[in-house]
Amino acid sequence: MPFDITKTREHFPALQQDQVFLDNAGGSQALGDVIDSIAAYLSKTNVQLGASYHTGTQSNTKYEEGYQAAAKYINAGRDEIVLGGSTTQLFMNLAGALHFDEGDEIILSKMEHETNVKPWLFMAERLKLTVKWWESSKSDGLKLTPENLKPLLSPKVKFVACTHVSNILGTIHDVRAIADAVHEAGALLCIDGVSFAPHRKVDVKTFGVDFYAFSWYKVYGPHIAVLYASNSAQKHVKAMAHFFNPTKTLEDKLGFAASNYENVQTIPQITKYLDGSVDAITEQEGKLQKILLDFLNSRSDITVQGSTSADSSQRVPTISFTVDTVNPKQIVNEAEKISNYGFRWGHFYSKRLCDEVLGLGPEGVTRVSMVHYNTEDDIWGLVEVLKKVLP
Ligand SMILES: Cc1ncc(COP(=O)(O)O)c(C=O)c1O
């Protein structure tokens, strides 16, 4: 079925207003069905889980359906996921529950949102682990690969964390190949899938990862996140449950008295929308990124930070750039004066990447992050706005 942008946009109430949303990597707009289901849940079934009276059982069922839909969508077992407030929170919970031996090594990357760094630094401090840093240079294509990882791996390394897609560069990493290299060395791999999940299908078994997390508020839903931990990786996760509660599943271990009920129960609405749509989403996003990249690449005073290719197998439409003579903040400020385009400047919490790897100034990059509900006309219009605000 050809992608119908008009029909697609009708699913999102927020798109029916005079604002072009181009900060989708910050947070996407929510589906109307998600919004309606939250209102319905709170109106009719907002009771404490676990009860046996009529409304209680409805509530239990809705919550369980949210968990089931999330697990199925990412191809995980029901016992291999936990839902929680945010990816940052879930990684922090995991960092408090993981166990390694003093003197073991962990590898962290400098291409990350800090969410996939700080929890592991905290863990390293707690368990007296040694931290090794992994990065890719511009000459290496700013891409994390098994090749640039392997020199850091050794039998002492027990844990590696990296991003699936950088929230600045948009480049897709081959997590399967990275997972194979990590496992060959006998370590566990944790992936931040936050910038990947809004654009492509998540399949944790195909990826071969041990831990994987993303946030549904960037995937057309509300503020809730999912963490996957494979059954075998859960051997390293100490249960943080009350002593009288079960400790079998990841939810038992890290669930902390349940997730936000009204948000959990929206997940079937999101997965229903996404199921079977990924090819159309990829195609639409490919068109959008090509329009913007063709313009940015045509100017010698603009540097695209990350891949300049519009190839959808290489990147998602999260595009950051710098301009020789104008700083990112100025570009955004000037664009806001003359248009209804919403995009942003900064380091977007990938501060190590911006400062240490890309060598950027304090204002970081200008980032335009698109998703499938943006139109080609939106992006042609953005190019016209940029032409006006750039020298
Ligand atoms: C790549 C990436 N990882 C992690 C996060 C943090 O997600 P959360 O707000 O759910 O903690 C973000 C948020 O912008 C992100 O872009």
UniProtKB/TrEMBL annotation:
| Gene Ontology MF annotations | transferase activity
Q: Which domain of life is it from?
A: Eukaryota
Record keyword Membrane present: no
Going by the UniProt record, its keywords in alphabetical order are:
Transferase
Is Transferase among the key words of this record?
yes
- InterPro entries given for it? Aminotrans_V_dom, PyrdxlP-dep_Trfase, PyrdxlP-dep_Trfase_major, PyrdxlP-dep_Trfase_small
Query: Which sequence ranges are marked TM in the entry?
Result: none
Pinpoint the Aminotransferase class V domain residues. 20-379
Name the record gives this protein? PLP-dependent transferase
